[in-house]
Every structure is written in structure tokens, then in C-alpha cells.
Amino acid sequence: MKYEFNFSNRGPVVDVKEQLIESLKSKISRKIWELWFETFKVESVSDDLIIFTVGNLFIKDWINERYAKQFKEIVKEVTGKDISYTIKDEVIQESCTPKSALNESTPLVRKRPVLLSEFNKEYTFENFVVGLFNEESYDGAIEIAKNPGKMNPFFLYGGVGLGKTHLLHAMGNYMLESNPDLHVMYMTAEKFTNDLVISIKNGTSNDFRKNIREKLDVLMIDDIQFLAGKDGIQSELFHTLNYFIDGQKQIILCSDRTPTQLSEFQPRLISRLQMGLMVKVNSPDNETKMEIARAFAKKNRIDLNEEMIRQIVRASDNIRTMKGIINKIAFKNAKNSVDESTVSRIVNEISGIQIRKVEDKAVEKEVFFQSLASVFDLRPAEIDAKLRTAKLSNARQVGMFFARKYMGKTFAEIGEWFGRDHSSVVYACKKVEESVRVGNAIVKKEIVQLQELLHIQNGESAG
């Protein structure tokens, strides 16, 4: 029997179930609703209990952890009473054994996903800023994350600093959160190449193929443009693509250009890349840039007014540059509160770097460190601190090499910047130089990103 309340001051009898859903929708963004509430229903309403249902246990836990307060509010708002509520998941209800077969030893435990890759927890669909410029890529990523295997391959492309990596990690996080049974792996094209080459040398290529093709449900490969000219690796990728497509598994590929622009790629591979869903991540408009800048500022816990935000947006030619500027403002803010004049000076410094000629390599340490921090997703203060992690060591070594080769700094100057002795600086420069020489795609990408942030395109060692 449908349970109804009569709101005399609102006209006719109102269906409480519909009213509960509409009230909840008004308190939750469209983005969150489409992501997490697609299976949400009101199962029943009685005098003492309201029962909601969702698609599975993991969505239930996610909603309970984040929206308990909103649920209490809407129940009181709609019914006028403090009625208890519960959220059930349909999967457990449908698949569990009859009550007579259950006993105290039958646990209902949330299963933890198998972590084959470390996805950045800060990169989610919820905090991805959506505008007309990237709505298609965002919608495509959500569709694939919700229905892996539906459209193959998913090919995401676009320029530097536009959010491709954010979307890849958001997809990984969502898949593992909503379906921990999935085996999801993210790797760069370089890792795919290196793992294959090592397996061939060791005579374990069949194990490599089995681990990739048979054990995975979702495979993400970033920066596939670096496979140009590597015919053997492309053949392996081609057959892997076919395996995933035939098995209705999901393969996701990311590039800085369209398939037809991938030079030195096999025609048959290009054809395969075009057969799925291809989506471009475009550059944001000014309004969206403002929103992104506000989000970065909020994340860094700095209070910027609209004029400050506008200054930052005007000085930023891509999102990564914008992040670098805000990182520097946050660095300053940690010591003293920033005002409009401080922001203007920082923006002018960044703008000054952008219009300098290549010959002018006198880039201040502070500006360089905030650019380096932006590339490696760190805080400038971490690079300058005494902390030692693999990520920090890598960032410092690349920074030392870059300062030497592209900024003309002496070993002594670099040592002073990074707090390292002469031999440590020389070692770091030689190590990164060797990585570049052998074609390390990740290191090359990091150097290119620094060049773009600082607008330094070429450079030669000072000798």
C-alpha cells in the first residue's frame, strides 16, 4: 500500500516517495546524482521507517559515509517527523541465502579491491571541473567507468595540462570504488614497452601476455604517442587490443594527438584505435578557467578574491601553468598572508618568464621550484625540505638536470639551490641525461612540461 502524507498547505496529496527523491536531488549536484544515485530508489515508507535501495553494497557505503546528514534533513523536511531510515543494496538482497539459512557466522563484509595500480585519490569525477569545452570527454569517461567493455577502445586525446590524467585516475577510482571485483591497471606506454622487452629477454613473454590479457578487466595505457616507430611494441598492442575487444574487456588509451596524427604507427593499429569511442579534451574557456582556479585555491587553503583569480587566469596559457602560479601563491601564503599586490607581483614574475628570450636563463629559484612542484604534483616546500622519498628524489634530479642544461646554471649554483654537494649534482645530471639518451618517455615528458611552464624551448649545457 502506498503511504502518503497530506500537506494541506501545498494543495493535493503528495506522493512521499517522489517528494523524497526530488528533495534529495535539490541538495545534490547533477554530477554526483548521475554518478552515484542512478540506481537510487525509495522502496517503502511507513510510520517508523523509510527504506531506500541502491545498486550495490559499495554505493551504499559511499552514500552513507557522505550524505547521512542530508538524508536526515530531507526525511524531516518531507514528512515533518524524525522517521528512521535505512539504505539497502539490491545485490545483497537478491543474492543472499534465505533467512533460515543465515546464522551469526555469515558475515557481510565489504570486499577490498585488488590494487594493481596506485590511483591518485585526489583525482575524482566529483572534483573534475566540467564545462562545455570538456563535457563530452567527461561524459564519455563516466559512461566507460560505469559500463566497462561497452565501447572499445576508449581513446582520450588532447594537449598538455587539460585534465586527461585526472580523468584516467577518476575512472580508475570510480571503477574500484563501485566494483572492487574488477582488476584495473594503469600504465604508461613506456612501462608497457619496458615490461614487454624484459619479458622477451627473460623468455617470459607468454607470462606477460597472460598477466595483461587474461588477468585484467580494464587496461589503461597513457601517452601512447611515445610508441611511434616501435613496430614490435605496436604489434603487441594491436593483438592486446583485439583480445580485449573480443573478450568485452575495457581498454583505455591516452594520447596528445588523434590516431591519424600518430606518425610511424601501423595503419592496422590506427584503424583499431578509431573503431571505438574517440574523445578530445579541449582547452577551457575563461569562465571555466576561473572555476578551476577557485578549486585549486580552495584545495591549497588560500582565499583569493575575484580580481586575483582573473589575474591568474590571464597569465595562464594552460591549467598546469595556472596550478603552478597558485602553488607559488600558496608557498608565499604559508609565510605571510597574500594580498592583491603580492598576487600581482607573482603573476608578473610568471608572465615575465613567459616572454623572456631563450638566451635569458636567469629564472629565480622560487619560480623554478613552483614549476617543478607543479609537474611532479608536489608542494614547492617539499622539494626544498630534507624529506627523502622516491618521488622527491626523482623531482630533484630532473630539476638539477633541467637547471644545468636549459637554464645554464653552474653545478655550484644548482648545489646551492637544492642543498646538495658538487658530486651529488653531477651524479643527478648524468643519471637524468642517460635516461633521456635511452629514450625514457616519462623523463622526456617531465622535461617538456617544465619547458612549457617556463617557456624555455631549447638549451645547451654551460659546459
UniProtKB/TrEMBL annotation:
Arranged from A to Z, the UniProt key words for this protein are: ATP-binding, Cytoplasm, DNA replication, DNA-binding, Lipid-binding, Nucleotide-binding
State the Gene Ontology terms under molecular function: ATP binding; DNA replication origin binding; lipid binding
Annotated Chromosomal replication initiator DnaA C-terminal domain ranges read: 364-432
Every AAA+ ATPase domain range: 150-279
Entry-linked Pfam families: Bac_DnaA, Bac_DnaA_C, DnaA_N
Q: What InterPro entries is this protein classified in? A: AAA+_ATPase (IPR003593), Chromosome_initiator_DnaA (IPR001957), Chromosome_initiator_DnaA-like (IPR020591), Chromosome_initiator_DnaA_CS (IPR018312), DnaA_C (IPR013159), DnaA_dom (IPR013317), DnaA_N_dom (IPR024633), DnaA_N_sf (IPR038454)
Task: Give positions of region: Domain IV, binds dsDNA.
Answer: 334-463
**In the UniProt record, which is one GO cellular component term?**
plasma membrane
What Gene3D superfamilies does the entry give? 1.10.1750.10, 3.30.300.180, P-loop containing nucleotide triphosphate hydrolases
Instruction: Kindly list the places in or outside the cell where this protein is found, as annotated in its UniProt entry.
Output: Cytoplasm
GO BP term, pick one? regulation of DNA replication
What residue spans carry the region label Domain I, interacts with DnaA modulators?
1-95
State where ATP binds: G161, G163, K164, T165
Assigned protein family: Belongs to the DnaA family.
Q: How does it assemble?
A: Oligomerizes as a right-handed, spiral filament on DNA at oriC.
* Main function: Plays an essential role in the initiation and regulation of chromosomal replication. ATP-DnaA binds to the origin of replication (oriC) to initiate formation of the DNA replication initiation complex once per cell cycle. Binds the DnaA box (a 9 base pair repeat at the origin) and separates the double-stranded (ds)DNA. Forms a right-handed helical filament on oriC DNA; dsDNA binds to the exterior of the filament while single-stranded (ss)DNA is stabiized in the filament's interior.
Swiss-Prot/TrEMBL domain comment: Domain I is involved in oligomerization and binding regulators, domain II is flexibile and of varying length in different bacteria, domain III forms the AAA+ region, while domain IV binds dsDNA.
Output this protein's name.
Chromosomal replication initiator protein DnaA
- Organism of origin is Mesoaciditoga lauensis
What is the phylogenetic placement of the source species in the record?
Bacteria, Thermotogati, Thermotogota, Thermotogae, Mesoaciditogales
Q: Point out the gene that encodes the protein.
A: dnaA
